[in-house]
Amino acid sequence: MSPITQDLSQLSLLALFAHPDDEGFGSGGTLAMLVARGARVTLVCATNGDVGEISDPSLATPDNLAQVRQEELRQAMAVTGVPDVRFLNYRDSGMVGTEDNNHPDSLHQANPATAIGQLVNIIREVQPEVVITHDPSGGYGHPDHRAVCQHATAAFHQAGVADAYPEQLSQERPVWAPRLLYYVGFPRSNFQRIWQKMVEMDVTPPFASQDIDSVGTPDEDVTTTLDVTAWVDTKIASLNCHRTQIDPNGPFAQLPEEMTREIMGTEYYTLASPGEDLLGAL
Ligand SMILES: [Zn+2]
Question: Which one of 163, 206, 214, 229 has the fewest beta carbons within 10 angstroms of its own beta carbon?
Answer without folding.
Answer: 163
